[in-house]
Amino acid sequence: MTYYYNGFPQSEHDEKLNLINVDQLEEDAKRVIPEGAYYYIASGAENEWTWRNNTAAFNHYQIVPRALTDMEDPQLDTEFMGIKLKTPVMIAPIACHGIAHKDAEVATQKGAAAAGALFSSSTYANKSVEDIAAAAPDAPRFFQLYLSKDWNFNKMVFDAVKKAGYKAIMLTVDALVSGYREANLRTQFTYPVPLDFFNRYLGAKGEGQSVAQMYAASAQKIGPKDVARIKEESRPSYLY
Amino acid sequence: MTYYYNGFPQSEHDEKLNLINVDQLEEDAKRVIPEGAYYYIASGAENEWTWRNNTAAFNHYQIVPRALTDMEDPQLDTEFMGIKLKTPVMIAPIACHGIAHKDAEVATQKGAAAAGALFSSSTYANKSVEDIAAAAPDAPRFFQLYLSKDWNFNKMVFDAVKKAGYKAIMLTVDALVSGYREANLRTQFTYPVPLDFFNRYLGAKGEGQSVAQMYAASAQKIGPKDVARIKEESRPSYLY
Amino acid sequence: MTYYYNGFPQSEHDEKLNLINVDQLEEDAKRVIPEGAYYYIASGAENEWTWRNNTAAFNHYQIVPRALTDMEDPQLDTEFMGIKLKTPVMIAPIACHGIAHKDAEVATQKGAAAAGALFSSSTYANKSVEDIAAAAPDAPRFFQLYLSKDWNFNKMVFDAVKKAGYKAIMLTVDALVSGYREANLRTQFTYPVPLDFFNRYLGAKGEGQSVAQMYAASAQKIGPKDVARIKEESRPSYLY
Amino acid sequence: MTYYYNGFPQSEHDEKLNLINVDQLEEDAKRVIPEGAYYYIASGAENEWTWRNNTAAFNHYQIVPRALTDMEDPQLDTEFMGIKLKTPVMIAPIACHGIAHKDAEVATQKGAAAAGALFSSSTYANKSVEDIAAAAPDAPRFFQLYLSKDWNFNKMVFDAVKKAGYKAIMLTVDALVSGYREANLRTQFTYPVPLDFFNRYLGAKGEGQSVAQMYAASAQKIGPKDVARIKEESRPSYLY
């Protein structure tokens, strides 16, 4: 079934994926997600030279199996910054999961928790940090921060994520303005569904805004002093 | 002519191949072998990155000819572990030759013997080690072992291959579970024809099982002690 | 609207380009510029091996962003040979801009000035150095010189560019004859519109000549003494 | 016009080629030469890995132009083993030019002489060494030798090429048997027109033979003693 938000078709459909690999998932997704939204997920900046070269470089990290180790049933569980994980996988912070499904980050958090992976939530999530946390109360999660020019907004964010039990704040320092994402320009992409923090604080829902417009609200000038101030004002509970 | 085993079409056809190179043989085979069975032979694990890179790396071993050597009619015969071979080629152990022809490993052993190559027979062969040996009594051959969790099964295997005159046991240590073979998953491949050792010992013929199910009967925990025990229990006749 | 010069269609159309990247501009241009003229702009010498390898090599100069620099609104303005530029971009000297638009180098100079880039004008420009200068009197510009066999022609050129306020002369030393441009040979390209200096001095307008014919008027023998003589005879005003 | 020799169409057509590059010539030739004959010229051994890699490696020898050399009208004339050449190009020895044109090596020698290049003639030429020499009496040329098992044949060849004024004998030492040329196997290529030396000496014309059959008459066992004997028996005139 498909739900329409201001004309944007959002899937409400739930079924087990017959998933063989990620490339095939990308092809399958392309058939069901509107073009502009699909490329918001699946494209990179400029002519994607860096993206392609990153992928090629990553493929050269080879997993070399060992033999005759006298070991049965190897486990993938690990520990990251004191957090126990069943699998060494972290869901990177990605804006606006609502493009792919109406349950947005709530659904992704549930899946991550089921797999024992670490979830991380973007400042530009559709769902509230409280709803995401409630989806899997015992699972660990991080919060990704686009620092705002407005420290009142920042403080409100810190308080909300602390209260919701997020384990850490990940500060974005290499994307202070939007990348020159050519596929988004070609499709004239704007966020089709509301983003929680914008709705809550700015009275603007976020949807209908381009990526570049969203970034305009963020701080472009970030230095070591800002990091110190974030640390001070957020006082992450796990440090005390 | 084609024979049908439980609906799976098995060639009974014999003719001299007009074979120019191996790539062309692969194309020709694709036209006559059912899709799932074809990809059991012709595909690799995951997205085949390792397979492609292995092939590329292998191509860099260059055969550099020498000139003015005053030599006529060079011979390719060589010796491998004390075994004289007319050609430095070994048929790698491959499961279930019956996919390609009803005579399965019996036919492959005949061809290998005619070419003076060393044949090696998989634990998952369709034909019995005795029938394979009878196909070319004087030709050398090895046996590939997926160690079973059940040492009674292992002992039965050792006795059978020794009695059949196999020269060596090749222990598989790097494939204790099935590879994530995407092409097999896509075609939902199961072994279409019976495998001798499963039929003989387990009362299960093996056909209708997926590759993953087959591996489940194998030992996943293998270490140096297992190697020593295999050596002791198999007591290869050529060492005495 | 399109203007016809001796049958060659020259665009008079002005509109803001909806430009996403340069590759797309190249595709768009291919649709509106006649084939021979398009390849005069878009092709390289021989089988374009050097061109492709230059592009690949250039892509390996990577722009690595820094983070946490406490800097806002970074500026691209720079200084090149004492000339202040708003952007570190220089328009390379290219012959015969009239292929792309009737306003030719006058339009390119206006665009370069608007962007704060350095313009450079080819000896084979369609427009006069005076008209180009008048298009953006305060903008900096260089003049590219194909040295003529005829020093009277050269002196005339020096005087004209000095009077028009050009800041420097760029001497071409690596293209004393035309490159073997295969695409131009295939389309039998000749300059379709007049080139100012040929018109002014030689009484020949230049159009209807092949690239090879144009080069025949240039000096093929150039050495350090010619560089000294150019320096002496041109006495660039910014040195005094 | 086309001449037919035993059903093989041989061009008698002469016209100036509108030749832009060698790749285009190869495409043009493919349209007029029968398939098997075309691939005799245009294919390599095995799966052409070495051929492709040789071409790629050769492309890395870069011709780097110098500038400001004060030189006009550079000349390409050079000297190779005491022979003056107008151009540093040598026509490699290739069998059976008659595939491409009825005038065969006589025409190629004329073209090489006109360009000032060094021609070299294969043992498997269609035309006699005397006719090739007569086509350009003053031009330099070499003779390529597939050494025969029969030294009477070899002596006859030496005497003929010396008398015809060939400057050197090039001994093939790295192709004592035919390469595994897959394209020739696929098209079942046999020489379609007579080869002079086979006609003259063996009473067999050579046509209708496969490349492998031709090589069978050659010596496969060649060492330093053979080189010395060739030197002694051929006594190249330019050494005395």
From TrEMBL, chains A, B, C, D:
Cross-referenced Pfam families: FMN_dh (PF01070)
Keyword Glycosyltransferase: no
Transmembrane segments: none
PROSITE patterns from the UniProt entry: FMN_HYDROXY_ACID_DH_2
Highest taxon of source: Bacteria
Cofactors demanded by this protein: FMN
Residues covered by the FMN hydroxy acid dehydrogenase domain: 14-240
Coiled coil regions in record: none
Keywords: Flavoprotein, FMN, Oxidoreductase
InterPro entries: Aldolase_TIM, FMN-dep_DH, FMN_HAD
Descriptive protein name: FMN hydroxy acid dehydrogenase domain-containing protein
Organism the protein comes from: Lactobacillus intestinalis DSM 6629
